[in-house]
Amino acid sequence: MPKKTLLCDDNFEFITELIVEICKDLVRNGLNRRIRVNVATLQECFALACESIRFYQLETNNVSFYKEAAHISFWINKMKPIRIVDAEKNGSLLEKTKKKASEIKKEMTGTVAGFHIDMENEREKEKSEFPINEHTALHLALTLIESCQRDYAELQEDARIKSDMLTRISNSAERTQYIEEDLISSLRYHTYSARGLALTLEGLLRVGAF
Prior knowledge:
Elements: H1 11-28, E1 35-37, H2 39-55, H3 65-79, E2 82-84, H4 91-107, H5 132-154, H6 159-178, H7 180-189, H8 194-205
Antiparallel strand pairs: 1-2
Helix pairs in contact: 1-4, 1-5, 2-3, 3-5, 3-8, 5-6
């Protein structure tokens, strides 16, 4: 089936912007805390997702978007590039995150080997009552998967098939909301492999044949 290739270099900035929007939604919905996104660690997550896809002998140009989204989210959950700090304004900090991602994109080449990964980068990982990385990882995966599903549905020439697909996608997303807290808690307290997360997400969200 036609699909987006999520793990291409050009998508790093796009995925960073999605993460910033997820963080902004948290603030708009009452999380009165300052959120810090370590873009260097986020870049490392992106590169590691490409590597782990290859570890499972999956070619990035021939792998489902469920697996791609799961591998990205797995490394975000594992590397924890997002921190909650003090109760200050978030706007300027999150905008700086997007600007930094844009600068990093310009330095990237077409291969994982071209990524500049500072493995010695100092990562501050405060523990927080709110599972910010688990929340972000899950919502990023759900957003990417739903976007790809909707793009595929829009390719259908038969209006009835397209309408049926879009309805099923909406219903699937609505059902997932009811177990969102359980999924976040599971990501925090249970051990998932990237493959295991992919199977879980595909099992929950797969609609018909796609």
